[in-house]
Amino acid sequence: MSSQTNRTRNTGVSPVRIRNTGVSPVRKHRKQSTEFTGETPVLRTAVTNVVIAGLGGQGVLKASDILAEVAFRAGLDTKKSEIHGMSQRGGSVASDVRFGKNVLSPMIPSGRADFLVVLDGEQVDVNRHVLREGGVLIGPDKIDVNALGNRRSLNVAMLGILSNHLEIDLPFWLDSIKANLPEKLHDANIEAFETGRNAAGD
Amino acid sequence: MSGNEAVAKAALDAGVALGTGYPGTPSTEILENFSLIGGLAQWAPNEKVAMEVALGASFAGARTLVTMKHVGLNVAADPLFTSAYTGVTGAMVIVTADDPGMASSQNEQDNRHYARAAGIPMFEPSDSQEAYDFTLRAIELSEKFHTPVFLRVTTRICHSKTVVIPARSATEPQKPEFVRDIKSRVMIPAYARPAHKRMRERLTQITDWNERSDLNQTIKGNDDLGIIATGISYAHAREAAPEASFLKIGLTWPIPIKTIENFTKSVARCVVIEEGDPVLVETLLAAGLKVEGKDPMYRFGELNVGRVRRILSADTSPEPAPAKGKPPQLCPGCPHRTGFKILKKLNCIVPGDIGCYTLGVLPPFEAMDTCVCMGASIGVGLGMRHVLPDEKARRVVSVIGDSTFVHSGITGLVEMVYNPPKTGHVVLILDNGTTAMTGLQEHPGTGRKLDHQPTNQIIFEDFAKSLGIERVEVFDPTKEAEKFERALAEALKSGELCVIIARRPCLLAAKKIREYEQQAAEANAHE
Ligand SMILES: Cc1ncc(C[n+]2csc(CCOP(=O)(O)OP(=O)(O)O)c2C)c(N)n1
Ligand code: SF4
């Protein structure tokens, strides 16, 4: 497994991050944690935070599994967290994926997501608060589901859009999609991924 | 790897001979994975039985793993407490998966209390790597000190995926063997009294061992602020206050009090960051250490980086309300739907139970009046029937799922036969052929084992009849909705003891069930 995974990885904290936390060395405590939003460039480049959200049955967790594996294959420390366990379809689902040199908490602090990928229109407003100022929203309106061979690969198509924003090489994406899906679904999903990747147009 | 996958992998690598448990979020995937990667894993009818099976195997020298969600440990508490007296021969690791924030549970009890109450050591991993490592270490500790050992995980440990590097277990498992040891294993008072003393001595020895062990890690930061953290709280706190000094405790019971005392002395301010109840901080305060805890408002729900920051700055201003997502609902076409339509139409009083069908409490049905713990529907229904005026008592119907019925509804049914209310009673078993709520696990009523291979099947209607219950009827709630409704109405009027079974597979499970049945039929044909 990757070299980022040694057990002492937790010490590589950059000095700039220190200044941006709620606890200052001089013990003068700030009130609101939200105060730090948008003024932590180092944190942002050090760890990329992606929230994927939608409804049960849409493949939110599958998409976050694929993304986490992409980052892991690309040699990054990766953590992913979600609440799951209910079988029934249709309830809200959201998954946090974090990757970078050194990831600590598996949960993305509120207002710190760099990307919010949403698979269901009605779930956009519910989740918007996770985005940092200037964070990128990738909503289902970015894709014409009818252009997809199979609507069920919307999750992977959305990853295609996201891939344009991340500097991770294409083969990592394709390998991870294949590793996370049964073989008979490979072609349809790679196609969906390409559709998404091209839909963004940039 | 998820924390659950990591525990399963470690168990396999350490030569665990038997994994047993009962499904419950967030613990379920441990045994499923253990089975998938080649371990022997079994679902027991409930957690108490699972604990006993594991204990027996450990008495016989095998390494065992027993898994359950936090409330499952309540069910297994009876064998648990006395297993601390008897001790074990082969390792016995008990995984308790707590659910702070109640993502999928009826309470958020903190099972660290059990370690202290039962006198059983407890490991608390803070990520998947530690879930792996600590499972191995728990096995070693269990065999070194002949005690059952807890591995306490929480939802975020179980379901988060972080990088894991597997290792090799240091010691080889021994061959199972029966060695008679009556004085340690037969807990009549004369033998239990010295056993209790042995258990306390063992805990003192483990405390000494813990003080010297590498399970508790100090990370030197600046000395203005020291943070003592356990489990997932450690990851949040490191991110919230990267400049602070840290003491991460891996074996949280028995507490390495000297190690902690030394740490508190090395920093100006020392804060304990723990999710859930103030278990650790209260113990440290009682021992006279200078530490701070959190405001009681942070006892509720999960911690995260933002909340840890607030705790550190003693911020008690109201927190923003969490965004309201869409709650789960019974799937469209779910076979449970018919039952709730009828219960609503007949204006029934419905002591309910736990499973997918608990969602019958939500609109459009709103046809459930109580839900306490698994199996409670029958006892609660009988209690109501005993005291309510007749015309109300006659409207009471206990509603219970198939897996829940096996788990703890059986004794309720026996109670119904033994102490029948004078208006009779009606128990409705919603038999969807699976444990749907937790992700479609098998149970003794499905006739298939954890790995979906065929085994003996408990037939509910035969069982009810064998207890002497005469009115036992079975319907397909979708195809025979009218008959089902009529039968329920008549059962309520009859004043008899009745069991009605609504049998139709869960939509999500139906296809898989057909496949399993086909495979079984083919295998039979070959024989
Ligand atoms: C003591 C205990 N163990 C486990 C659980 C987790 N759990 C909740 S409901 C349930 C079983 C649901 O199965 P079933 O009764 O068949 O209903 P279904 O979900 O299939 O409708 C389980 C295992 C629990 N709540 N309490
Ligand atoms: S998972 Fe099955 S039992 Fe649960 S709501 Fe859906 S169809 Fe019904």
The chain-level structural class of chain B is alpha/beta
Q: Strand share of the residues of chain B?
A: 5-15%
Mean of pLDDT of chain B: 96
Could you tell me the strand content of chain A as a percent range? 15-25%
Task: Please identify the oligomeric state.
Answer: heterodimer
Identify the bound ligands: thiamine diphosphate, iron/sulfur cluster
The rounded Rg of chain A comes to 17 Å
From the alpha-carbon coordinates, what is the Rg of chain B to the nearest angstrom? 25 Å
- CATH C-level class of chain A is Alpha Beta
* Total beta strand runs of chain A: 5
CATH structural architecture of chain A: 3-Layer(aba) Sandwich
Helix and strand string of chain A, N-terminal first? HHEHEEEHEHHH
- Kindly report the spatial arrangement of strands forming the biggest sheet of chain B: 2-1-3-4-6-5-10
Overall geometry of chain A comes to globular
Unreliable runs of chain A, pLDDT <50, ≥5 residues?
1-45
Largest sheet of chain A: 5 strands, mixed
Overall mean pLDDT of chain A stands at 79
How would you portray this structure in words?
The complex is a heterodimer of chains A (202) and B (527). By secondary structure, chain A is an alpha/beta fold. Chain A has one domain: Pyruvate-ferredoxin oxidoreductase, PFOR, domain III (Pyruvate-ferredoxin Oxidoreductase, domain 3). Helix content of chain A is 32%, strand content 19%. Chain A has helices spanning 15-19, 41-46, 60-73, 123-127, 154-163, 170-180, 186-199; strands spanning 47-55, 77-82, 92-100, 113-118, 131-138. Chain A has a five-stranded mixed beta sheet with strand order 2-3-1-4-5. In chain A, helix 3 (60-73) packs across helix 6 and helix 5 (154-163) crosses helix 7 (186-199). Chain B has three domains: 3-211, Rossmann fold, CATH 3.40.50; 217-312, 3-Layer(aba) Sandwich (Rossmann fold), CATH 3.40.50.920; 336-526, Rossmann fold, CATH 3.40.50.970. Helices cover 43% and strands 14% of the residues of chain B. In chain B, the strands form three sheets. Chain B has a seven-stranded mixed beta sheet, with helices on both faces. In chain B, strands 7-9-8-11 form a four-stranded mixed beta sheet, with helices on both faces. In chain B, helix 18 links the parallel strand 12 and strand 13 (425-431). Chain B starts with a helix and ends with a helix. The model of chain B has no long low-confidence stretch (mean pLDDT 96). The interface between A and B is large, with 56 and 62 residues. The complex binds thiamine diphosphate and iron/sulfur cluster. Thiamine diphosphate binds at residues 22-24, 47, 69, 71-72, 75, 354-357, 374, 401-404, 432, 434-438, 506 of chain B.
